[in-house]
Amino acid sequence: MRDVIRWKNVALLSLALLVVGCSSTSKKELPPAELPDFTAEVELDEQWDRSIGDGQGETFNMLEPAIEGEKIFAADVEGVVMALDRMTGDVIWEDDLELPISGAVGAGYGLVMLGTLKGEIIALDSSTGEEKWRARVNSEVLSAPATNGDIVLVQTQDDRLVAFDADTGNQRWSFDNTPAVLTLRGTSAPVLTNNLAIAALSSGRVIALDAQRGIPVWEQRVAVPQGRSELDRVVDIDGGLLLSGGKLYVVSYQGRVAALDLESGRVLWQREASSYVGVAQGFGTVYVCLANGTVEGVDERSASALWSNDALARRQLSAPEVFSSYVVFGDFEGYLHLISQVDGRFVGREHVDSDGIRARPLVDGDWLYVFGNSGKLVAYTIK
């Protein structure tokens, strides 16, 4: 059994590296596109920067920071966790868990939550960094835990959902899913409301459970596996779910981008797409960074592309985020790109981290936060 598990882990990592274009052995593989020239219309003003340990490390982690109130929380792969004043960058507290952190930071209701490669869930007090409780699951955790103040919800690498009491860490319920044979290395972070626990799975499905009991409420398939090989049939939903205005936005690899009704799971609209990094939404438009490096603005009324920008082909783009009137996202060389929400034209660019940017940029009001792969966390405003 150990040999099977070890082989599958190698397959998962190899597939992830193949998907993001890290393999350069094939003669047919095209290089990443050169950065296009343009006349800048927007300039960013760096307010502060801070080094967060070793950042993402050598493995394909997606350690996104989290914001709660006036604090921003970030962690590195070795277990360093920091709480910073989001306006000044001053360190409020710092803790070294001395554990291999693999899941992004979750924050809310006074808790900071992290998952590890060893299947541990750690909840810290957001004000002091003091450990509140620690629990264990049966697999590594690659995404941020979520909380609604009553439970903490965790999704494991093998698509199992586990709910813990937010105060004590005692397990409330668990729900097993059958993962796909091959998956990308990553997991979409679950979403919690007062009533629903929602998760996107490696099988291309989205499920909603009763948050109190873990009983299924609805299920919707976003992507249908197609092709002869297991590689062709990968339909992982690794990009984060986006909840806005009673709608749930989701995109899968080799599948579709779609909007679902939160209460029923009914598909409101859908469009073919392939992405492993998630979507952003604003002004009646959904923005998606596709796996091939194309960025699209999709009209919610017609599900058609309003515009498409393919100038960043194969540059391994991060998830997009809406910032003011722009869409922002990073790339493998550490450039932060700003494009217009109206027509997708380039309006700004900033070099943040030579090790690259995988984590989704964070936006809070007029502030933009970017976490580079090396551990550099930078706060910007518009000049």
Automatic annotation (TrEMBL):
<dbReference type="InterPro" id="IPR011047">
    <property type="entry name" value="Quinoprotein_ADH-like_sf"/>
</dbReference>
<keyword id="KW-0564">Palmitate</keyword>
<comment type="function">
    <text>Part of the outer membrane protein assembly complex, which is involved in assembly and insertion of beta-barrel proteins into the outer membrane.</text>
</comment>
<dbReference type="InterPro" id="IPR015943">
    <property type="entry name" value="WD40/YVTN_repeat-like_dom_sf"/>
</dbReference>
<keyword id="KW-0472">Membrane</keyword>
<keyword id="KW-0732">Signal</keyword>
<keyword id="KW-0998">Cell outer membrane</keyword>
<protein>
    <recommendedName>
        <fullName>Outer membrane protein assembly factor BamB</fullName>
    </recommendedName>
</protein>
<dbReference type="InterPro" id="IPR002372">
    <property type="entry name" value="PQQ_rpt_dom"/>
</dbReference>
<comment type="subunit">
    <text>Part of the Bam complex.</text>
</comment>
<comment type="similarity">
    <text>Belongs to the BamB family.</text>
</comment>
<dbReference type="InterPro" id="IPR017687">
    <property type="entry name" value="BamB"/>
</dbReference>
<dbReference type="GO" id="GO:0051205">
    <property type="term" value="P:protein insertion into membrane"/>
</dbReference>
<dbReference type="GO" id="GO:0043165">
    <property type="term" value="P:Gram-negative-bacterium-type cell outer membrane assembly"/>
</dbReference>
<dbReference type="GO" id="GO:0009279">
    <property type="term" value="C:cell outer membrane"/>
</dbReference>
<feature type="domain" description="Pyrrolo-quinoline quinone repeat">
    <location>
        <begin position="78"/>
        <end position="309"/>
    </location>
</feature>
<keyword id="KW-0449">Lipoprotein</keyword>
<dbReference type="InterPro" id="IPR018391">
    <property type="entry name" value="PQQ_b-propeller_rpt"/>
</dbReference>
<dbReference type="Pfam" id="PF13360">
    <property type="entry name" value="PQQ_2"/>
</dbReference>
